[in-house]
């Protein structure tokens, strides 16, 4: 076990984790960022809606961030997967799968979420190329194109109301029972949105460019882009192991500066939010980093007698 007691260990090296690391580095704090190196946005070619970095490749964003954080030598990056966490406020012990052990006064979960399989043939080939989950991130590139939405129920209504701001050429494929009521179907019809409730047989594409969605009833829906409602889960159950409160969606419950219900444990980014925007995650990470520093300062202040 490492004899060095760090100020913080950050689990997750995406926008939230790195933003927290930057805030801590500039606060003269020591921290290790443990990152598995498999961000959820690795399938996409570009990040959007991030001021000064609009259109950047996710890997390039991470490279630049690490390069800038390297100016603060007390911040270290370790590639690996966290296996266990134990301890309590003031002395947490974090072990990685390959046996590395770190001790820290505070702990930040910036682990994001993970995609659950949707079991739709052909979706993997277009995901991140012409099939996306967020209109704010990728709607501009597909504006006014013929789009298919894959969602059902309230999720379908939400996606329809948002996506129509980018294109009026929308078809809703619910991949089975639509889970809509008569009033919702009528509402969609008023906006020119056709609902197809036959299960999806296959998404046909060429080099990542979607061509059509084939349904099991023999129908086909031509399109040049897809937006779908993902199924997400927490990336790790380690926060629950420590006793962190978790919402129904799997998000760690945290206040505006990332504090959870467990003393010394913070969370930020997609791990603690259902917003799923890189710039929002970075903002939450910065607040969590400052929150950790403020807590450490307060503890040091009170220790002086």
UniProtKB/TrEMBL annotation:
Homodimer. Keywords: Flavoprotein, Oxidoreductase. Its cofactor is FAD. This is FAD/NAD(P)-binding domain-containing protein. InterPro entries: FAD/NAD-bd_sf, FAD/NAD-binding_dom, Ferredoxin-NADP_redctase_2. It comes from the Bacteria. Coiled coil: none annotated. Residues 7-285 form the FAD/NAD(P)-binding domain.
């Amino acid at each position: 076990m490492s004899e060095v007691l760090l100020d913080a260990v950050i689990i997750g090296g995406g926008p939230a984790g790195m933003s927290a690391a930057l805030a801590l580095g500039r606060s003269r704090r020591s921290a290790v960022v443990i990152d598995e190196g498999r961000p959820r946005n690795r399938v996409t070619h570009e990040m959007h809606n991030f001021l000064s970095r609009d259109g950047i490749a996710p890997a390039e964003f991470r490279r630049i961030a690490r390069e800038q954080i390297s100016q603060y030598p007390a911040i270290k990056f370790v590639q690996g997967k966290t296996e266990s966490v134990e301890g309590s406020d003031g002395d947490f012990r974090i072990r990685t799968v390959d046996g590395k052990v770190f001790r820290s006064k505070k702990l930040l979960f910036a682990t994001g979420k993970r995609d659950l399989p949707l079991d739709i043939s052909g979706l993997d080939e277009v995901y991140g190329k012409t099939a996306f989950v967020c209109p704010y991130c990728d709607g501009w590139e597909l504006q006014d194109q013929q789009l298919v939405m894959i969602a059902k129920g309230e999720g379908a209504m939400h996606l329809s109301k948002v996506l129509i701001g980018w294109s009026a050429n929308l078809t809703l494929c619910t991949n089975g029972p639509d889970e809509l009521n008569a009033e919702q179907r009528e509402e969609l019809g008023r906006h020119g949105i056709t609902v197809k409730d036959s299960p999806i047989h296959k998404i046909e594409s060429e080099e990542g460019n979607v061509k059509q969605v084939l349904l099991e009833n023999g129908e086909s829906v031509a399109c040049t882009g897809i937006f779908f409602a993902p199924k997400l889960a927490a990336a790790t159950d380690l926060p629950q192991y420590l006793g962190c409160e978790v919402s129904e969606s799997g998000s760690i419950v945290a206040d505006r500066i990332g504090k959870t219900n467990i003393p010394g444990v913070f969370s930020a980014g997609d791990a603690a939010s259902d917003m799923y925007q890189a710039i929002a995650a970075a903002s939450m990470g910065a607040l969590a980093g400052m929150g950790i520093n403020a807590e450490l300062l307060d503890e040091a202040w009170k220790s002086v007698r």
